[in-house]
Amino acid sequence: MRSRTIIVCLLLAGCAQAPVLPPTAELFRDELFAAPSQHIDASEIFALSEPMQRYLEVEVETGIRAKGVRQALIDAVTQGRLKLKYDSETTRTAAQAFDARAGNCLSLAIMTAAFAKALNMNVYYNVAEGDLWSRASDIYFLNAHVNVSLAQRLSEARTRYDAATLMTIDFLPGGEITGLRTREVDERTIVAMFMNNRAAEALVGGRLNDAYWWAREAVRQDPRFMGAYNTLGVVYLRRGETAMAERIFSRVREREPDNTRALANLALALGRLGREAEAAAVEDQLARIERHAPFYFFQRGLAAMEAGDYPAARALFQKELDRVPDYHEFHFWLGLAELQLGNVPGARAQVAAALENSTTRHDHDLYAAKLQRLAALRR
């Protein structure tokens, strides 16, 4: 039987092909959760702050006559004084991303879209999906990548959509999204994704009440977005409401029979309910879809490190890198295994790769400090 792991979707925009009925009250158990620690309001996500409005007037509108509105906006966002940094730790509103000069791909896409809408431009949202996994504590995330495409001003557009006239702004290098499936989604899905991210971040931070209200609102904003249901189910699992969790994961399975995140969580819930035969059947279905679970070799590598079997650990971490070449944590642990085996140059190379591929300030600082210590070694 496969290892059962709680999995939360992060930035996954999986829409059902068949019509999905709006959520009913049976999905929500508000009485089990305290009020959220902050106000949840979808209207704040794209709202322009006064500093953003001033930036439009100074950096964008002054360049419109020479460059045109789209190019002026693109230059102001990607080449202007913002000097944006990629940071996947927190999902920010447009105003928060602008103030921090940083954000994950969703936050930076939202900020760009907010500027574009203020300039009366057509905005299209694109989601690239693939097997991009990450983890925080005991929660595993399937990531998707978001960017925005800009068309002409609404008053200038002759048709609703002409791919040849779109200009896309992307905040990740092109190589990182090569080969991923890309499709357009509408803005309510982007709003649901934002709230689902906030729910996942609350889960990582141990704020279960907040996680519930963010996931609940994500479901309400876009009932087609199955990632929000999955996150809501995980919240119920953490609260000990296993029957509610099973009901939600089963709903996702009905809409998306091959949704591996929901299947893994459903098997976990069924097992906790003592329905072992059903859990085993779901595990078998999952195994047919996905030969090895995400982080399968990595977890075995960690066990080998703990047992002092560093050659085995090195081989297992390398297997994960063969599947996901750019994930920072795999490089880092491979570097630790190389260090234990006396290969200091190999350790330096792997930790440097971890530093290059880090996506949060915390990880960046951790790897930078480790690399500095490795640089002092003479072996």
Provide key terms for this protein.
alpha/beta; disordered N terminus; five-stranded mixed sheet; 379 residues; C8orf32 fold; Serine Threonine Protein Phosphatase 5, Tetratricopeptide repeat; single chain
Short structural summary:
This protein has helices at 50-67, 69-78, 94-100, 105-118, 187-204, 208-221, 226-239, 242-255, 260-272, 276-289, 296-307, 310-323, 328-340, 344-357, 361-375; strands at 7-9, 85-86, 102-103, 121-136, 139-153, 167-169, 181-185.
CATH topology of the domain at 39-185: C8orf32 fold
The helix/strand order is EHHEHEHEEEEHHHHHHHHHHH
For the largest beta-sheet, the strand count, sense and barrel status come to:
5 strands, mixed
Which radius of gyration do the C-alpha atoms yield?
A: 22 Å
Q: Using DSSP, what is the number of strands?
A: 7
Helix count, per DSSP? 15
CATH A-level architecture of the domain at 39-185: Roll
CATH class of the domain at 39-185: Alpha Beta
Percentage of residues in strands: 5-15%
Secondary structure class reads alpha/beta
Helix content: 40-55%
Distance between the termini: 43 Å
Structural account:
The protein is α/β, with parallel strands linked by helices and 379 residues long. Among the domains are: 39-185, Roll (C8orf32 fold); 296-375, Tetratricopeptide repeat domain (Serine Threonine Protein Phosphatase 5, Tetratricopeptide repeat), CATH 1.25.40. The protein is built from 15 helices and seven strands. It has helices spanning 50-67, 69-78, 94-100, 105-118, 187-204, 208-221, 226-239, 242-255, 260-272, 276-289, 296-307, 310-323, 328-340, 344-357, 361-375; strands at residues 7-9, 85-86, 102-103, 121-136, 139-153, 167-169, 181-185. Strands 1, 4, 5, 6 and 7 form a five-stranded mixed sheet that branches. A two-stranded parallel sheet has the order 2-3. Helix 14 (344-357) runs antiparallel to helix 15 (361-375). The longest helix is centred in the N-terminal third of the chain and has 18 residues, at 50-67. The protein is globular, with a radius of gyration of 22 Å. The model is unreliable at 1-21 and 155-164 (pLDDT under 50).
